[in-house]
Write a structure and sequence with these properties.
It is elongated and about 50 Å long. The longest helix is centred in the last third of the chain and has 24 residues. It has five helices and four strands, in the order ββαααβααβ.
């Protein structure tokens, strides 16, 4: 393992950063915004894990690792079709998205049916998971915007879309299986 002797690099002092293939781009490039927001999602999930235990914590740990994979995927231009076969870029795979779908289905099977929109809140874990859901939705919008400009791995869009669904059902699970959800009451304060 490489030992880092300094934390600051100075290489970004002029507003540029390096992508996974070495290309330098502006720090406000849409690609950097997309993988930066994925990193932000990961950080929010890290805070949520302070309140998680058992299987929920294990799921969130796997997701955090996936998010580093997703960041690496987005950091490296291309959709994977022209990657060097001897050193392919790290890309999100259908297996990772399918794992999210299986977890969503298992969690959702035990939730009370929805009768209204759910307001973020309830338990501390649920509130943090709702923050993670909204940040992942912002990441998704940026990834979709990037996909409209450049070729990206289409699985990246699928994964981030499923992640926000996962955060939603997990937030409900954290509210006593949905029994303690705070429900929207349309026009309540008119």
């Amino acid at each position: 393992m490489v030992q880092l002797t300094r934390i600051y690099t100075k290489s970004g002092d002029k507003g540029k950063t390096a992508l996974g293939n070495g290309t330098r781009v502006a720090k406000n490039d849409i690609r950097v915004a997309a993988y930066g927001t994925v990193d932000e999602t990961n950080a929010v999930i890290g805070v949520a894990r302070l309140h998680a235990t058992g299987n929920v914590d294990a799921m969130l740990a796997r997701i955090q690792n996936d998010l580093f994979d997703l960041g690496a995927d987005l950091c490296t231009p291309g959709d994977g079709s022209d990657d060097n076969p001897e050193r392919p870029a790290l890309r999100i795979t259908p297996t990772q998205t399918e794992r999210l779908e299986s977890e969503i289905d298992a969690i959702n099977a035990d939730l009370d049916p929805l009768t209204s929109f759910v307001l973020p809140g309830g338990s501390a874990l649920s509130a943090q998971l709702h923050v993670a859901r909204t940040v992942s939705r912002r990441a998704e919008r940026l990834i979709v915007e990037l996909a409209g400009i450049e070729a990206i791995n289409p699985e990246a869009v699928r994964y981030i879309n499923r992640l926000s669904d996962h955060m939603f059902v997990l937030a409900r699970h954290a509210n006593n299986g949905g029994k303690d959800d705070i429900l929207w009451q349309p026009g309540l304060t008119r």
